[in-house]
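User: I'm writing a tutorial on reading structure tokens. Could you give me a worked example: one chain, its sequence, then its tokens, then a sentence or two explaining what the tokens reveal?
Assistant: Sure. Here is the example chain.
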Amino acid sequence: MTDERQTEKANSGETASLGELAFLFLRLGTVAFGGPAAHIAMMEEEIVRRRGWLTREKFLDLLGAANLIPGPNSTELAIHIGYERAGWPGLFVAGTCFILPAALIVTALAWSYVAFGKLPEVSGILYGVKPVIIAVVLQALWGLGKTAVKTKLLAVSGVIVLVLCFSGINELALLFGTGFVLMFVDRLKRRLEKGESALQSFFPSALLLFQSSAPATAAAFGLWPLFLFFLKVGAVLFGSGYVLLAFLRADLVERWGWLTNEQLLDAIAVGQITPGPVFTTATFIGYLLGGTSGAAAATVGIFLPAFVFVGLSGWIVPRLRRSPAMAAFLDGVNVASLALMVFVAYELGRSALIDRVTILLFLLSAVLLIRFKLNSAWLVIGGALTGSLLSLGTNSAP
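And here are its predicted structure tokens:
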């Protein structure tokens, strides 16, 4: 679909039915392997290119807004999209349907873990899926990049952010820093055009990050404390899965003794190897500690803040675009978000493209996506089947 047709359809005022939203996000939640970057890429394919529900610029604005609030970015993007297409009912339907498949899959894995003492073998599936995911992410980056990188300044900013990613700079600092720098440059340019001094263009800006400290004493397990703990995590957590690991280990292992280090690492692994939001790690932990009720309490607790934050911030995005300075800030956040996705794709590629088979899967997926416009969901399923068959062949060999 061309950019002109996308814009025309997205601006037509047409809204998506709740059934359409539910079906789409249930499917995405079932096949969206690979973490937030892959989820975002698959949403861009479905929402922008296939259905034309949003323009690329609007999609990027929602992505930027999701990156600026705590919680799981790809889940918050799904919630934003639901709100844009069907209001408050769409907000709840899109978010819930994206989370539900992963939560059910993780609960089943947790049951198996408790019953048999180990996780099922999934390495073959991931072997075939990962190369496909790299192709999906790169295709999305190409399309989104053409929209986000509108000026030479934005292009240079993206390159600088990418270099800083390799230096280990915090993701949140890069997002806000790029946004504030570009907002300041825009304000300075406008002031100078009016003949005002550079000093008049300066304005103070600060970002305050709070982290509550939990008591150092051991705590007895209960569903309510479990819910409140994951509610706190969902409300304050920025950053990657490694940040989530640090939060969980500090309280659940060291402070309260509810989990062992081995159980925590297994929980993190489950969040990484299953489709949908990585935060369903909480579902696994909840089941280990309190069965089905614990899984439900932990899942609701960690995802509830995302619905609240998106509901409170969703109306702000269109207003930001009306302010030249804030539009420049949002442009900076958008290009920084894409630079972070490039970095993630690079890291994923290092672990995914490990031999001739995976490289061939990647190239074949890229051709089918770009040349034949094949739906990425079918490619992910094909990659999973290929990896499983190759794994069975290897295991059965004498």
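What the tokens reveal: Confidence is low (pLDDT under 50) at residues 197-216. The CA atoms of residues 15 and 164 lie 40 Å apart.
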